[in-house]
Amino acid sequence: MTTLLKKRLSLALLLLATVWLAFYSHHTIAKQAQANDFEPQLKPLRIAVAANFAPALEHLLKDLPNNSKINYQIISAATGTLYQQIKHGAPFDLFLAADNLRPTKLEQEQLILPNSRQTYAFGQLALWSATEKINNLNKLNNFSGYLAIANPSTAPYGKAAQQALQSLSLWSKLENRVVTGININQTFQQVRSQAVPIGIVALSQLKINQLKGITIPAHYYQPIAQQLVILKNSKQLKHAQQISDFLLQEITQAKLKKLGYLPGKNINSQGAL
């Protein structure tokens, strides 16, 4: 088998794995949403959340006061995808983005409740492999395989990963061997399933799954300021505001470091991380 044919076969297998992982991720999220036993007479509060924060949100909402009385549904995708859906009239009530760009655009387009745009967390990147030992970022200097990152065009964590590789003067070297996931969850699954040997994922994914990787220093990429907004056309403004307040309160913010994030709000010395 020629080298060219081997490369084409490898790419074909990676693309097949990517398609399968995209279906699997969506199916799991939908199943989890349907499995919750909430009051049937209420329409669900639809929370559109960036893929990186969906597991953390599910974890945090377990402590939401009157959790069982709020019928909510979590819809997870890349931030850019969710933004386009909102612009085209998707009936979301609350939007938790992985950046501040799209929430700002929605504010400028007058699609959100005034003064609802808030930074709820700062994301962090990590280099991780399910099969190879990684001691530091020097692993990438002589790396010759494929590298998984989220799509820089639609996923803020993918954009940050590209910035980190550029800061390390590695983007031009690795660009042709980058495998992009639709969102950061798919990128994590690509590495976890060993379809791709190594990837730049969200630190939160490693924390939640009790895995270890190398945290990429924040000065290598622009801050991943994750903001939330309440959509103006929401029919459940009271519950949307309740969840927003819950995520921004001091006790919730203090839990973020254990979940792989930095708090979006200042907390006092009693809640310091």
Question: Would you spell out the secondary-structure blueprint of this structure?
Answer:
Elements: H1 3-35, E1 45-50, H2 54-61, E2 72-77, H3 79-87, E3 94-96, H4 101-108, E4 118-123, E5 125-128, E6 147-150, H5 156-167, H6 171-174, E7 178-181, H7 184-192, E8 198-202, H8 203-208, E9 214-215, E10 224-230, H9 237-248, H10 250-253, E11 262-263
Parallel strand pairs: 1-2, 1-3, 6-7, 6-8
Antiparallel strand pairs: 3-10, 4-10, 4-11, 5-8, 5-9
Helix pairs in contact: 1-7
Provide an overview of this structure.
The chain has 273 residues and is α/β, with parallel strands linked by helices. The chain has two domains: 22-123 and 224-271, D-Maltodextrin-Binding Protein, domain 2 (3-Layer(aba) Sandwich), CATH 3.40.190.10; 124-220, Periplasmic binding protein-like II (D-Maltodextrin-Binding Protein, domain 2, 3-Layer(aba) Sandwich). It is 38% helix and 18% strand. The protein has ten helices and eleven strands. The chain has helices spanning 3-35, 54-61, 79-87, 101-108, 156-167, 171-174, 184-192, 203-208, 237-248, 250-253, and strands at residues 45-50, 72-77, 94-96, 118-123, 125-128, 147-150, 178-181, 198-202, 214-215, 224-230, 262-263. The strands form two sheets. Strands 2-1-3-10-4-11 form a six-stranded mixed sheet. Strands 7-6-8-5-9 form a five-stranded mixed sheet, sandwiched between helices. Strand 1 (45-50), helix 2 and strand 2 (72-77) form a beta-alpha-beta unit. The longest helix is centred in the first third of the chain and has 33 residues, at 3-35. It is globular. Residues 3-13, 15-41 and 268-273 have low confidence and may be disordered.
